[in-house]
Amino acid sequence: MNAPDVLTQAISDAYDETPYISLPFSYSSPGHLRAVASLYNLDAPALSHARVLELGCAAGGNLLPFALAHPEATIVGIDLSPQQIDAGRRAAEAVGARNVDLRAMSLTDITAEFGVFDYIICHGVFSWVPPEVREAIWRICRDNLAPEGIAYISYNTYPGWKASDVIRDAMILNTFGAETPQEKVARAKDMLELIEGGLWHNNPLRSALQLAARQLRGQTDHYLLHEYLEAINTPCYFLEFAAAAQQAGLAYVTDAEPQVTFPSTFGAAVAVGLNGLSVNAGREMREQYLDFAVGRSFRRSLLVHAERAEGMLDQPEGGAFTRMHFAADLTAQPGPTGQRQYRAPHGVIDSQDASMIALMDALAQAWPQSLPFDTLVDAVRPLAPETPADGLATIVIGHLVALVQANALHYRLEPAAYQAAQSRPRLIPGALELLQQVTKPGCQVGMHNLWHHPITAPADALYRYATSQIDGERSTTELRTLVRDALTSGRYLHPTGQSYKGARNLDPVAQEVVTSLLGELRRVGLLLN
């Protein structure tokens, strides 16, 4: 076995030894990639019959949401770890995702004959593999990508990874001689303690290293093993990645989260500072300057065939939003006088603008459903009845851009499959079967919603039982009866821990449990209606 093969086998063994829960990443979902591409005047294949390939798919947790939502699509996942592929196959079979084909093989074995795909996803792989595998990734994205396809590659970047490089070197040094993954992690954490509390006060890297070390403290053991203690972790500057893409016959489009490529997202000081420096620079150079300004350490790049670059916009066109559907997980809460605040997954958004408030109220009330652009215009219209239609559209586009910059908006070319609340609640496709799987020991995939978000399964035993009874046939009244009987019989405790065994007149208590559960399932996006 030659050196590259030995290294490849070592990578495979490492993931077999320490498997992890394979989760979805919303910014890599084909629906999101298609919508982002349209902002740059790029068409991408429709989702219903799309052909999707994921390189380094683990147990397929990033593929299951799309596969279950689009049963006519073709989904293929490749991973080097046979153990994770086997776990993924079991999960896919259990939830009825018959359009998922998971294969244990090396990326270097994929040729042009392997097939053509509309969306190629490579998340968490590129920086962690040998050079010959990175070359294979470039080749696959060129030879196996459909003419109008979109490729997605994530990777570690400089300058943000410079401090992490030092920490990685220090942790690897301290793990020399460790014989088990657990011992490696323990020794790595010992080094983190030194960096956090034992650095000389005149060490010029002290503040940067300590900040990076503190951030690592909250990460899982698996993350430390595979992000910092693997044999390979090769960050690069964005310009190096873009040049390699060009050499491979591909063109860079944007980041999967386009807002992070604009200085204005990071405040006026960054925007003003970069304005003069990059005024005559091309787009890729401007983004490299921005990476230095914000200390970027990770990128998620979208790529297309090089010949499509000529028709691609240099900046996203806000007018593309008029053809889209939108959703946002927002919860209104009290704010300062004259302001309205909304809690979003990534922070709090506040506004004094009445039209912005009306738009966010509409999105909050609809969640997890999506709303078309025209519906959002209608929500704003009463506040500006004399404003012409094009003016209202401009106002709404501005508000949507603000929500995108706050990382609070989902946008798609197709409407989400969520429906209005009904008397017979129904879970999203595959959720009932997946709920049964994720509670079993050894399951390597997690729950998800239709927005491609990872979801935590209900932890309370009564909630889990009641969720398992939501089959689309039972009404909320029937669910209440089941919960009441479960409490009365003593089979389950109330979520507060109280026993109601033998108690009477529990309908109000059971109704409160059902109402609370359905509200939570709707909030996290597990409830279809």
How would you briefly describe this protein structure?
The protein is of the alpha/beta class and 529 residues long. It contains 19 helices and 16 strands.
General description of the model:
With 529 residues, the protein is of the alpha/beta class. It has four domains: 194 residues, 3-Layer(aba) Sandwich (Rossmann fold), CATH 3.40.50; 67 residues; 88 residues, Outer Surface Protein A, domain 3, CATH 3.90.930; 94 residues, no CATH class. It is built from 19 helices and 16 strands. The strands form four sheets. Strands 1, 2, 3, 4, 5, 6, 7 and 8 form an eight-stranded mixed β-sheet that branches. Strands 13-9-14 form a three-stranded antiparallel β-sheet. A three-stranded antiparallel β-sheet has the order 10-11-12, with helices on one face. The longest helix is centred in the last third of the chain and has 18 residues. The mean pLDDT is 92.
Task: Provide tags for this entry.
529 residues; alpha/beta; Rossmann fold; Outer Surface Protein A, domain 3; 4 domains; 8-stranded mixed beta sheet; 3-stranded antiparallel beta sheet; 19 helices; 16 strands; 43% helix; 15% strand; globular
